[in-house]
Amino acid sequence: ETGVTQSPTHLIKTRGQQVTLRCSSQSGHNTVSWYQQALGQGPQFIFQYYREEENGRGNFPPRFSGLQFPNYSSELNVNALELDDSALYLCASSFKSGAAYGYTFGSGTRLTVV
Amino acid sequence: QKEVEQNSGPLSVPEGAIASLNCTYSDRGSQSFFWYRQYSGKSPELIMFIYSNGDKEDGRFTAQLNKASQYVSLLIRDSQPSDSATYLCAVKDTGGFKTIFGAGTRLFVKA
C-alpha cells in the first residue's frame, strides 16, 4: 500500500507568479483535500475533490483552484501569488464512505513567496 | 464561522505522567472527531478518531467525547519524550465535506 506523495517538497516563487502543486492519493482512497498550514497554525481547509469534482471549499479566493484526475491524483493551482501564500501546503486523501475515516496526509510542499 | 478551539500550550509533563489535551468545537451537528499528532517539520498523522459519546482507548491513548458539552479530549498515559509534538484536534463539519482543525497544543515530555 503506497502512501500520499506530494511534489515538489520545497518551492520558491516570486509575487505575482503562478504555481502548481501535485499529489498522488493513497491506494484505495478516492477523495483528496488540500490544506494550507501557516507557521504555528492549524491546517486551513482549501477544498476537497471527489470523483473529479470539487465538493467543498473553504474561505480561499478563486485564484486557488484544483483538479482531480481519474486515478485520484490531484493538483492545486495558485495564481497571482501573494506574500501571505507562503505556507506548508498539505494534501490529504481519504476514503469517502463513512464519516469516521480520517485523513492520510502527504509530507507537504513548503511554498515561499518572495 | 465553525471553530475548533485548543489551548496552544506548551503543556509540559514529566516522563511517565498522564498528559491531558482538550478541545472544544462550535458545530453542534458534528459527528466525527479526530486527533492528529504533528512532529516539528512533519505532516500531521492520525492517532485517534471517535464518534460516540464516552471513551475510546487505543494503547496509551484515550479519546473522550462529550457532545452535549461540545468537548473532546485526549489522554496520553505513561508519556514518553517521543510523544513531544503538536496535537491537533479536528472535527468533521455537519455537511461532511471538510474537516476543521484547531491550532494545536504543543506537548513537551521531559525525561
Radius of gyration of chain A: 13 Å
Number of helices of chain A: 0
Protein chain pair with the most extensive contact, residues per chain: A-B, 24 and 25 residues
Q: Whole-number average pLDDT of chain A? A: 92
- Overall helicity of chain A: under 10%
Low-pLDDT windows of residues of chain A:
none
Outline type of chain A: globular
Multimerization status: heterodimer
The run of helices and strands of chain B is: EEEEEEEEEEE
Largest sheet of chain B: 6 strands, mixed
Report how far apart the termini of chain A are: 38 Å
Explain this structure to me?
The complex is a heterodimer of chains A (114) and B (111). Chain A has no helices and eleven strands. Chain A has strands at 5-7, 10-13, 19-24, 31-37, 44-50, 53-57, 64-68, 74-78, 87-94, 104-105, 109-113. In chain A, the strands form two sheets. In chain A, strands 2, 4, 5, 6, 9, 10 and 11 form a seven-stranded mixed beta sheet that branches. In chain A, strands 1-3-8-7 form a four-stranded antiparallel beta sheet, with no helix packed on it. In chain A, a hairpin with a 6-residue loop joins β4 and β5. The model of chain A has no long low-confidence stretch (mean pLDDT 92). Chain B is mainly β. The chains are: A mainly beta (114), B mainly beta (111). Chains A and B meet through β5 and β10 of A and β4, β5, β9 and β10 of B.
Features:
heterodimer; A: 114 residues; mainly beta; seven-stranded mixed beta sheet; four-stranded antiparallel beta sheet; B: 111 residues; five-stranded antiparallel beta sheet; 0% helix; 55% strand
Q: What's the structural blueprint in terms of helices and strands?
A:
The complex is a heterodimer of chains A (114) and B (111).
Chain A: E1 5-7, E2 10-13, E3 19-24, E4 31-37, E5 44-50, E6 53-57, E7 64-68, E8 74-78, E9 87-94, E10 104-105, E11 109-113
Parallel strand pairs in A: 2-11
Antiparallel strand pairs in A: 1-3, 3-8, 4-5, 4-9, 5-6, 7-8, 9-10, 9-11
Chain B: E1 4-6, E2 11-14, E3 19-25, E4 32-38, E5 45-50, E6 54-58, E7 61-66, E8 71-76, E9 85-92, E10 99-101, E11 105-110
Parallel strand pairs in B: 2-11
Antiparallel strand pairs in B: 1-3, 3-8, 4-5, 4-9, 6-7, 7-8, 9-10, 9-11
